[in-house]
Amino acid sequence: MATANKNKTAAAAAAAKTALATSPGDPAPGMRQVLQVISKRDGFRRAGREWHGTTLVPLDELNREKYEQIVHEPMLVAQLMEVPEEHVAELTDPGSGEGTGTA
What we know:
The chain is built from three helices and five strands. It has about 100 residues and is of the alpha+beta class.
């Protein structure tokens, strides 16, 4: 039984460490956080958006609830990234609706 308790403790510690590494924080100077979202099925809807292919969403466009919905959704693969501020507009391209995950 001692082994089972050690494994539970180790698993809990690993989960906490992973959660800290993937939760949003302050970006490095000159950088902006974006969430890369890959939809397993085009047209899938979550967090008030329709997702197609790979989408980059500036993190400041999401509240905490929507962020949590996206990262915990099995139909979406999400990765938090930092990109230079000057590249965010061209990567997310809000004018065309492409890349933003909105319909």
